Amino acid sequence: MKLITAVVRPHRLDEVKNALQALGVHGLTVTEARGHGRRPGHTEVYRGAEYTVDLTPKVRIEVLAADEDAGRLIDAVVTAARTGTLGDGKVWSVPVDTAVRVRTGERGVEAL
Amino acid sequence: MAPATPLAADTPALSPANTGFMLVCTALVMLMTPGLAFFYGGMVRVKSTLNMLMMSFVSLGIVTVLWVLYGFSLAFGTDTAGLIGWNPHWLGLSGIGRTDLWDGTTIPVLVFLVFQMMFAVLTPALISGALADRVRFGAWALFVALWATVVYFPVAHWVWGAGGWAYRLGVIDFAGGTAVHVNAGAAALGVILVIGKRAGFGTDPMRPHNLPLVMLGAGLLWFGWFGFNAGSWLGNDDGVGALMFVNTQVATGAAVLGWLAYEKLRHGACTTLGAASGAVAGLVAITPSGGAVSPLGALAIGVCAGVLCALAVGLKYRLGYDDSLDVVGVHLVGGVLGSLLVGLLATGTGQSDVAGLFYGGGLGQFWKQCAGVLAVLAYSLVASALLALLLDRTIGMRVAREAEESGIDGTEHAETAYDFSGAGGGAGRTPSAPDAPAAERARTGKVTA
């Protein structure tokens, strides 16, 4: 199994979610997050005081997938999240050794 | 009809219309203090929201009590040397009859005193914006009581009390440009020079945490200000209150545009905070002047206030003082501006026949306005700094550095402003009241032995 984590622009969340669901993903977790990659922060002005906001709002999407599905899902997330400008985010995956469905106790890919 | 008896003709009768109007105005002015609390509360960081709200709100308690006990007597009692009032029959408001009329008006003394009470409540609350995030709540409460006693009550007497020196000199201050705004702004400057900057001032980001709250507060202030300004004529018999009402709206609208235009040119965006701040700047500047100028004059005052205050709020970074929410930049600067512009823009057809420079009256009134502004500014600045110094050296004004960094809400008020998720609330514990076991049963549904 793999844990796919995507950190993307908040306004692309619906596209990413729809793309994953279209590929048969049954469950995902979304967290509001802040962060920065290569994109410089933006400037906000309050009564003339300028602040550089470099931790910009993002959403973090986490999906558990069977090893053979992970590549397709990652490609789908990247396509759906892309705008082509700085700040589109990152997607990565890591191996997972256990997953349990809490309601039934099923383990492994059965739990996905 | 036969004329009434000479006595009845000389004695003005209580006017139900004016009395009712003034009671509504009083309630409007009361609303300004919670409005100010929201205005300030939205501008601080999330960890000190409640403290900011409370610094204003507690004034409704403290100054109300002082006003009843001796404040009204000090501000509006029989004059001594133009400096202070005193009337032993007014201590505790005990000697005031239900239908006694305030001199020269058709409203009861009771109505006049409660209207003025709301001004006394609001003025110390204005100062709190300069002291965000860092003042012990107990020290602030004591400061409010001392400051009202030593600064506000005397200054209100100078400006509005029968026999007050500024009143006799002919300084025009319709609703509190000097007594309220210059006074509070200068006090803010005096206190921050003593207590110093917030931890991280100039380096840490200190963005407003809730601009909708700021806008809500500005809206409540604007609404309440109609009572503050139009009510200050204490009646509606000659249209001066109506002129003031119109000018309040005109100057405030123009000041919003002035501030927005400045920041659009200077910083590239019209901000919500700028619009809200411009409104307050315009309200401040029209407060002393609105009864004496024409609507076009009010428009000019508003534009000047919006632009000048937008410029002035940047000064603190250059001069290195932490006027956290710009009490000096908005209230002191706007109050001085509005008070001085009376000397130029008074038409002679408003509250009095005194005309300013632009209406053929020469500079005479301008110098009087300067005298009023300078005296209030200097006295409030020095007295407030000394009070802050006294409190700082005795009980201490500032919270510990760690408390300031972790957030003053938790350390001073034992509360959190926002709890949207409910996570991390900790274990519940009911108060150890006599009936605590019953409360525990109600909470857990268990019967314990």
TrEMBL record, chain A:
Domain of life, per lineage: Bacteria
InterPro entries in alphabetical order: N-reg_PII (IPR002187), N-reg_PII-like_a/b (IPR011322), N-reg_PII/ATP_PRibTrfase_C (IPR015867), N-reg_PII_urydylation_site (IPR002332)
PROSITE patterns linked: PII_GLNB_DOM, PII_GLNB_UMP
SMART domains in the cross-refs: P-II
Transcription keyword on record: yes
Pfam families: P-II
GO MF annotations, alphabetized: ATP binding; enzyme regulator activity
In-chain residues carrying the UniProt-annotated modification O-UMP-tyrosine: Y51
Keywords (A to Z) from UniProt: Nucleotide-binding, Phosphoprotein, Transcription, Transcription regulation
KW Signal (keyword) present: no
GO biological process: regulation of nitrogen utilization
GO CC terms, sorted: cytosol
Subunit structure as annotated in this protein's UniProt entry: Homotrimer.
Name the UniProt record assigns to this protein: Nitrogen regulatory protein P-II
TrEMBL record, chain B:
Localisation: Cell membrane
Bias (Basic and acidic residues): 406-416
GO terms for MF: ammonium channel activity
Disordered, as annotated region: 406-449
Domain of life: Bacteria
Domain called Ammonium transporter AmtB-like: residue spans: 21-418
This protein's GO CC annotations: plasma membrane
Bilayer disposition of the protein: Multi-pass membrane protein
PROSITE patterns xref list: AMMONIUM_TRANSP
Transmembrane segments: 20-40, 52-70, 107-127, 139-160, 180-199, 211-228, 240-262, 269-286, 292-315, 327-346, 366-391
SUPFAM superfamilies on file: Ammonium transporter (SSF111352)
Family that this chain belongs to: Belongs to the ammonia transporter channel (TC 1.A.11.2) family.
Function description: Involved in the uptake of ammonium/ammonia (NH(4)(+)/NH(3)).
UniProt subunit comment: Homotrimer.
The protein, known as: Ammonium transporter
Species per Swiss-Prot/TrEMBL record: Streptomyces tagetis
